[in-house]
Amino acid sequence: MVRISNSAYLAMLTMGVGLLTYSATPALATSSSSGAAATEPLKIEVMHRPSTCLIKSQKGDKLSMHYDGTLLEGTPFDSSRKRGQPFEFTLGKGQVIAGWDQGLTEMCPQEKRRLTIPSSLAYGDRGAGGVIPPKATLVFEVELLAIKNRKPGKDEL
């Protein structure tokens, strides 16, 4: 039997590679007092945008990212920065949690964002890796390092 650390397992779960690929679909997260269902929104905060942006991320792009992931109250659970290794995936293909697929579109290389992802767009009622509890809201500080498969076209200049 192969043993892996909780942080390695969590990294695989969080980013949808290796042992388990999980693509969350938007689900009803809360109910209002009137009984009508409501969903929690994905919150996107732009922390830094470069002065020049010749290309923006879109579905199908292979992205190279750095990220730091925490629970809403601040408990860290994973970081590509601490490992010193950027994470690469294809945007919009369900390789990552739905909050990432939605929150990383229209992003410029070197742009930094903070994504606050409700559980309905993350791991929902399941949680992940024994580190992310069920129904957890996640916060990711992300930086797009590069769009690996595309160069700026003349319509993007």
UniProtKB/TrEMBL annotation:
It catalyses: [protein]-peptidylproline (omega=180) = [protein]-peptidylproline (omega=0). It comes from the Eukaryota. Keywords: Isomerase, Rotamase, Signal. Residues 60-148 form the PPIase FKBP-type domain. GO terms for cellular component: endoplasmic reticulum. InterPro entries: FKBP2/11 (IPR044609), PPIase_dom_sf (IPR046357), PPIase_FKBP_dom (IPR001179). One of its GO terms (molecular function) is peptidyl-prolyl cis-trans isomerase activity. Residues 1-29 form the signal peptide. Its EC number is 5.2.1.8. The keyword Isomerase applies. The keyword Isomerase applies. This is peptidylprolyl isomerase.
